[in-house]
Automatic annotation (TrEMBL), chain A:
Its EC number is 3.2.1.68. SUPFAM superfamilies: (Trans)glycosidases, E set domains, Glycosyl hydrolase domain. Keywords: Glycosidase, Hydrolase, Transit peptide. It comes from Mucilaginibacter terrae. This is Isoamylase. Pfam families: Alpha-amylase, CBM_48, ISOA1-3_C. Belongs to the glycosyl hydrolase 13 family. Residues 168-578 form the Glycosyl hydrolase family 13 catalytic domain. CDD domains: AmyAc_Glg_debranch, E_set_GDE_N.
UniProtKB/TrEMBL annotation, chain B:
CDD domains: STAS_anti-anti-sigma_factors (cd07043). Belongs to the anti-sigma-factor antagonist family. PROSITE patterns: STAS. It holds the Pfam family STAS. InterPro entries: Anti-sigma_ant, STAS_dom, STAS_dom_sf. This is Anti-sigma factor antagonist. PANTHER family: ANTI-SIGMA FACTOR ANTAGONIST, ANTI-SIGMA FACTOR ANTAGONIST TM_1081-RELATED-RELATED. Residues 3-106 form the STAS domain.
Length: 707, 106
C-alpha cells in the first residue's frame, strides 16, 4: 500500500477481499480523487441498500463489489473512500436495492449495475459506432478523469453577447466528410484542425450540438426499404450530464476525451472563439417504462423523473420521459453539472434544449417562478456564462418572448425565424414583422433589450438555408418514418422548381435569396446565429429532420466552399461588415428619438420614399436608416447605415434619405447586382451612382453606408 | 509492458530514457525523475522514447508537469517517438508544447 496521508480521515478502517476502504465524504457527489484513494458518493432516497461495483477497464466481470455499510449512509447519500485504485483503469457503478413498485414510482432492480449520475466519463462508447456487446452486464461504465489540465492563461472570453456571431455545428458532421481534409475526422481534434476556417469565416462563437455522452445505437434500426443503418446521430438523448462523448474524440479509445475537448476549447479561445454547449436536461436516454435502466431510473426513479399519479412517465419532451428539474435534488444536479462545465471546461455559454420543460413543476404545470431557472440565473459560478433557452417544449408550452429571464436568459427567437422566412418568400403583410425583427424584436422583448433574442433563420432543426429556397415540402423518406417526422410549417419556397434543377434563373434566384437572408440576419439587432454550412450552400436534399443519418445528409461537404465561393465570400463579408459597424450591435432598443440632437433619430423607417414606410398588407418593400451617432446606444460613433429589402418580384425605385452636408451614400451590399458580385470590401464601397435614387432589384437587399 | 526510466544530466541537459507504458501506474516514476533532474536546473529536457509504446492521460500530465516544474523557458525534446505517441500528442494538442525530433541535438 502506498504511503498514506497523515490525515486520519484518509486512513482505511475496513477491508474486503484485500481492498481497503473507509467512510467517505458526502459531498461532492460522484467519484473524486482524494489522497491515496477515491471518494464515492451517490444519492438515493428510497433504496434499501447499495453496493459499489468495480471493474478493470473493459473486463466483463467486476473485480470487486463492496456493499456500503449502514454507517456509511448519511441522510440519503452513500459515501465511501476506497484506497489504492488505478485511476485510469477503474470502471465503477452501483447496485441498488429497493422496492420495485412502479405504481408508487419505484423501479429498483438489483440485477442492474447503474452508472453514476455524476460520472465524469463513461466507458463503453469509446469508439463511434463500435458494435456494442449486447451481453455486457454493464454497458455504460462510470470512469474517473484527471482534472489537472494545463489551461495556462485561458479563461472564458466574456465577449459581450451582442458582439457574437454564433455558428451552430455538429461535432462529427463538421469534419467527417472525406472532403474535409482533416486527419482526425469527425472529432474534437478535427474541429481544431479547422480553426483557421472558422477564423476565415469570422464567427466568434461555436455552439456545439450535444456532446454529453449519448448512445448512438439508441433506437437504431435499418431502413425498411434501403437497408440503411439509422442511428441516434444528433445525440439529443443524454446518458450522463457530466461526461463528454468519447466517440467524438480521436483519443476516446485511449480514454483521453477530456484532454482532447479541453484542448479544443483552449485553442478556440486563443483564437477568439467562444464555446457554447447545447445541453439537454429535459429528458434522458432511459425513456419511458419500456426503456432501459441505465442510471437515474434505478437509483431514484421518483426523484429524477416527473411521474403521473399512476407512476408512468410524463412526456413533455416527446421522447418518453421528462427530467424532474424542479425537484431540489435534480435542480442541484443540474447546477453542479453546469458549474462543472463552466469551471473545468471553461465553457462560455449554454443553450438549453426544450428549456420550457425546466420551468415545469413535478406535476407538469408551468411554474410562475421556476426555481431552477432562477438558480441558474443567479448562480455565482455561472455569472458570466450566457444562458440561452429554446423557449418551448413538446408538451405545447411556448414561451418565446416571455421565458422567465431574471435579467439573464436569452431565447432562440423562433418568431424571428418564421417572420423572416415569410417575408423572404414574398408573403403579404410581413413588412411590419420584418421591421420588428431587424430592430431586435422590441415587440417580444420590450424591457429585455435586443440581446434577449438569438436571431436565426435556420438551425439543426428544419431546412438548411439552401433547402429553404429549393423545396416547398419536406422530403424525409430516408428517415424511414413515412414522412411523419419533421415539421410541416417550413415557410419555405422552392423558387419555381422542387429540388435540384438546371434552370439558370431559378438557381440565381435561390442564391440571391440566401444572400438576402444572410443580409437581414447580420444587420439585425440582437445576436445572429448561422447553421453550419449555410455559408457555403449546404443541402440536406429537402430532408428537414436529419437526426438519424451518419452520412452525407449531415456531413459538411467542403467542396461546396469552392463550388459556391461567391456565397461563402458574401457570408464572410456580412460577418466582417457586422463586426465593423457597432451601430448594428446595440444592447438596448432604439428610442426613435434624437436625444443627442444629431439631426436624425437613432432609427428611421422608410419605403419607396424617405420617411414613408409602408406597412400595409400589400407592401413588400422596407427600408430603415441607422444613425451612426447612436452606435452602441450612443456610446460609440459609426457610419450611417441604410438597409433596404424588396421581396416583390419586380424592381422598385427608392428615393434615398438625404445625408448631412458633405456626406454620401456608398454601396456595401447589393444582392441584386448581376454576375454574382453582391458586395464591396470594407473601405472600397463606391459612392452610389445617383445621390437621390437607387433601383432596388426584384427580391433583393441593399446595405448602404453614409459617410 | 513494464515501464522503465533512466536519467542523467550532461552539460546542463537533462536526458531521460523511457520505455514500456507510461500510464497512471508508472507516471509517478517519471515524476520522481523529473523532480530529481529539476534540482540541477537543466536548460533543456530530452526524452528518448523510441522504446515507449503507450502514453496515457496520466503520461501526458507528466509532460505538462515537467514543463511547469522546469519552467516554460526550458524546451522539451521528444526523440524518435512511435507513431501512436505522436498521435496522442497531436490529438490532445500537447505536441505544440514540445519538439519532436529524430536526434538531439536536432
Amino acid at each position: 500500500m502506498a504511503e498514506y496521508d497523515l490525515r486520519i480521515d484518509y486512513y482505511p478502517t475496513h477491508e474486503l477481499q484485500g481492498i481497503e476502504y473507509r467512510r467517505g465524504h458526502v459531498l461532492p457527489f460522484g467519484a473524486t480523487m482524494v489522497p491515496n484513494g477515491v471518494n464515492f458518493s451517490v444519492y438515493s432516497s428510497a433504496s434499501t441498500s447499495c453496493s459499489l461495483v468495480m471493474f478493470e477497464r473493459g473486463e466483463p466481470l467486476p473485480f470487486a463489489e463492496i456493499p456500503f455499510p449502514e454507517e456509511f449512509r448519511i441522510g440519503n447519500a452513500y459515501c465511501m473512500i476506497v484506497f489504492d485504485l488505478d485511476f485510469e483503469s477503474l470502471e465503477y457503478g452501483y447496485r441498488m436495492d429497493g422496492p420495485h413498485d412502479p405504481a408508487n414510482g419505484h423501479r429498483f432492480d438489483n440485477s442492474k449495475i447503474l452508472s453514476d449520475p455524476y460520472a465524469k466519463a463513461i466507458g463503453g462508447r469509446d469508439t463511434w459506432m463500435a458494435s456494442p456487446d449486447w451481453d455486457n452486464i454493464y454497458p455504460f461504465r462510470s470512469r474517473l478523469v484527471f482534472e489537472d489540465f494545463d489551461w495556462e492563461h485561458d479563461r472564458p472570453l466574456q465577449i459581450p453577447i451582442e458582439d457574437l456571431v454564433i455558428y451552430e455545428m455538429h461535432v462529427r458532421s463538421f469534419t467527417m466528410h472525406p472532403s474535409s481534409g482533416a486527419k482526425y475526422k469527425g472529432t474534437f481534434a478535427g474541429i481544431r484542425e479547422k480553426i483557421p476556417y472558422l477564423k476565415e469565416l469570422g464567427i466568434n462563437c461555436v455552439e456545439l450540438m450535444p456532446i454529453y455522452e449519448f448512445d448512438e445505437w439508441e433506437h437504431s434500426k435499418l431502413h425498411s426499404d434501403t437497408g440503411q443503418q439509422l442511428v441516434n446521430y444528433w445525440g439529443y438523448s443524454t446518458l450522463n450530464f457530466f461526461s463528454p462523448k468519447a466517440g467524438y474524440a480521436a483519443s476516446g479509445k485511449l480514454g483521453m476525451q477530456v484532454d482532447e475537448l479541453k484542448t479544443l476549447i483552449k485553442d478556440l479561445h486563443s483564437n477568439g472563439i467562444e464555446v457554447f454547449l447545447d445541453v439537454v436536461f429535459n429528458h434522458t436516454a432511459e425513456g419511458d417504462h419500456r426503456g432501459p435502466t441505465i442510471s437515474f431510473k434505478g437509483i431514484d426513479n421518483k426523484t429524477y423523473y416527473m411521474l403521473t399519479p399512476e407512476g408512468y412517465y410524463f412526456n413533455f419532451s416527446g421522447t418518453g420521459n421528462t427530467l424532474n428539474c424542479n425537484n431540489p435534488v435534480v435542480r442541484n444536479m443540474v447546477l453542479d453539472c453546469l458549474r462543472y462545465w463552466a469551471s473545468e471546461y471553461h465553457i462560455d455559454g449554454f443553450r438549453f434544449d426544450l428549456a420550457a420543460i425546466l420551468g415545469r413543476a413535478p406535476d407538469g404545470s408551468p411554474l410562475n417562478n421556476p426555481p431552477l431557472l432562477e438558480s441558474l440565473a443567479f448562480d455565482p459560478v455561472l455569472a458570466k456564462c450566457k444562458l440561452i433557452a429554446e423557449a418551448w417544449d413538446a408538451g405545447g408550452l411556448y414561451q418565446v418572448g416571455n421565458f422567465p429571464a431574471y435579467g439573464r436568459w436569452a431565447e432562440w427567437n423562433g418568431k424571428y425565424r418564421d417572420h423572416i422566412r415569410q417575408y423572404l418568400k414574398g408573403d403579404a403583410g410581413r413588412v411590419g414583422h420584418l421591421a420588428q425583427a431587424i430592430q431586435g424584436s422590441p415587440w417580444l422583448y420590450p424591457t429585455r433589450g435586443t440581446t434577449a433574442g438569438i436571431n436565426f433563420i435556420t438551425c439543426h432543426d428544419g431546412f438548411t438555408l439552401y433547402d429553404l429556397f429549393a423545396y416547398n415540402e419536406k422530403h424525409n423518406q430516408a428517415n424511414g418514418e413515412n414522412g411523419n417526422d419533421g415539421c410541416n410549417d417550413n415557410e419555405s419556397w422552392n423558387c419555381g422548381c422542387e429540388g435540384e434543377c438546371d434552370d439558370t434563373e431559378i438557381n440565381a434566384l435561390r442564391y440571391r435569396q440566401i444572400k438576402n437572408a444572410l443580409t437581414i440576419l447580420l444587420v439585425s439587432q440582437g445576436v445572429p446565429m448561422i447553421y453550419m454550412g449555410d455559408e457555403m450552400g449546404r443541402t440536406q436534399h429537402g430532408n428537414n429532420n436529419t437526426y438519424c443519418h451518419d452520412n452525407e445528409l449531415n456531413w459538411l461537404n467542403w467542396a461546396l466552399k469552392d463550388k459556391n465561393a461567391d456565397l461563402f465570400a458574401f457570408a464572410r463579408h456580412m460577418i466582417v461588415f457586422r463586426k465593423a459597424h457597432p451601430v448594428l450591435r446595440n444592447r438596448d432598443h432604439f428610442t426613435y428619438s434624437d436625444y443627442k440632437n444629431t439631426g436624425f433619430a437613432d432609427i428611421t423607417f422608410h419605403g419607396a420614399n424617405p420617411y414613408q414606410a409602408d406597412f400595409s398588407e400589400g407592401s413588400r418593400v422596407f427600408a430603415c436608416m441607422l444613425n451612426g451617432q447612436y452606435a452602441k446606444n450612443g456610446a460609440e460613433t459609426d457610419d450611417h447605415i441604410y438597409i433596404a429589402t424588396n421581396s416583390y418580384w419586380d424592381a422598385v425605385v427608392l428615393e434615398l434619405p438625404q445625408l448631412p452636408g458633405g456626406m454620401h451614400w456608398h454601396t456595401s451590399v447589393n444582392t441584386g447586382m448581376p454576375n454574382g458580385a453582391s458586395y464591396f470590401d470594407l473601405g472600397q464601397e463606391p459612392v452610389v451612382e445617383h445621390p437621390k435614387h437607387f433601383i432596388l432589384g426584384p427580391r433583393s437587399a441593399i446595405v448602404l453606408i453614409g459617410k | 509492458m513494464a515501464f522503465t526510466i533512466t536519467s542523467e544530466i550532461s552539460e546542463g541537459i537533462a536526458k531521460l530514457t523511457l520505455s514500456g507504458s507510461l500510464d497512471s501506474s508508472s507516471a509517478s516514476m517519471m515524476q520522481l525523475e523529473v523532480q530529481k533532474v529539476a534540482t540541477q536546473s537543466p536548460t533543456a529536457l530530452v526524452l528518448y522514447v523510441s522504446e515507449l509504446e503507450f502514453m496515457s492521460s496520466a503520461g501526458l500530465r507528466m509532460l505538462i508537469f515537467a514543463k511547469q516544474k522546469l519552467g516554460t523557458s526550458v524546451q522539451i525534446y521528444i526523440v524518435q517517438p512511435q507513431g501512436q505517441i505522436v498521435d496522442t500528442l497531436q490529438m490532445t494538442g500537447i505536441i505544440h508544447s514540445v519538439h519532436i525530433v529524430d536526434n538531439y541535438p536536432a
